[in-house]
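Input.
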Amino acid sequence: MASNASLDKAPNVDDWLAIDADGRVRVRTGKVDIGQRVSTALALIAAEELDVPLDSVDVLRADTVRAPNEGITSGSNSM
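Output.
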């Protein structure tokens, strides 16, 4: 499998996801959504893969203290 810089720096699931006691899902990303709707795409993917309603998914972005620092937000690097 090809290497991924973001996963190399933050390889643990709990670096990326948190599921609260009430079932809300928090997806952490270091990407900045600058109009390309990356946060919407990530929320849709998380909801589908975790089999939860979309409205129970929150995407927390661009907080590199709590989320992985993914560097560049451009092109296909965002997904």
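The radius of gyration is 12 Å.
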